[in-house]
Design goal:
This protein has 278 residues and is an alpha+beta fold. Helices cover 37% and strands 23% of the residues. It folds into two domains: 102 residues, no CATH class; 168 residues, no CATH class. Strands 1, 2, 3, 4, 5, 9, 10, 11 and 12 form a nine-stranded mixed beta sheet that branches. A three-stranded antiparallel beta sheet has the order 6-7-8. Strand 7 and strand 8 form a beta hairpin. The chain is elongated.
Amino acid sequence: MKKYFITFFAGLFVVMLLTTGFAVAHGDEDVHDEPTINVLEIRDQNIRVATAAVGFLIFLVMLAIWWAGDNENAKKGIFILMVITVLLPTIYFVVSTLRVNFASPYGGPVHWHADFKIFACGTELDPPIPEGRFSNKTGTSVLHEHEDRRMHVEGVVVDDNEISLSNFFGSSGGELVGGRFKAPTGAQSFIEYSDGDTCSNSEQGVWNVFLYETGGTDIAHQRKLSIDEYPDYVLSPYQEAPPGDCIIFEFGPEKDVTQQICDFYQIAIDKGNLKIAE
């Protein structure tokens, strides 16, 4: 009987291991995180299949304890059912994962980063703090931040809208549209400005969004993103930053260039590993 218990718990572990990623990803999803195929429905179905498999495995082990007894044939039959109960969901999860990966324009999971800073009326804002969560992650499973002024793209990207700037801030409870920006600055506080609003000195301001991009080289180019461009901007596909993007959000007088720069960009410059194009 001991070997059957070992087999059962091994199978249970495999099913739970395969489904943990789906369950965690689903828990962090948001209405802003809406891919072109119904990934949410696929993940819901994965959870239902996993729940049914675990429940049936528990039923089988109870059956082996209270009904099969010393009947070797009965125990072998139950063991075969356990194997089938583990194998079929495993195959299903593999197929559904491949389906999502094939739907991605990037061919599967990615791991990218971009740094950012936010300034309003001359003051730098702290990164958003998640409210009521055990982790420090704000955003979706695919696009999020860890209170580190860094955008993290992790997982399978099915639609570029998932990793746009507007989705990044929208998924954390804020908003980013042309000329309007709202972002959490604490557990229950937000910064919110629209073009034409005034700072404490009664000076009207606008949102200036600047991008440092390297194209994978050791030279960064700064450019200003237009009001129509920055909400839909998609991060550059690099794991480190730099060469990943540095994005500066500034509410204040309209200007064409910024003197602000992300911390890791400045470190790379100080080390001689990066130059800013003139």
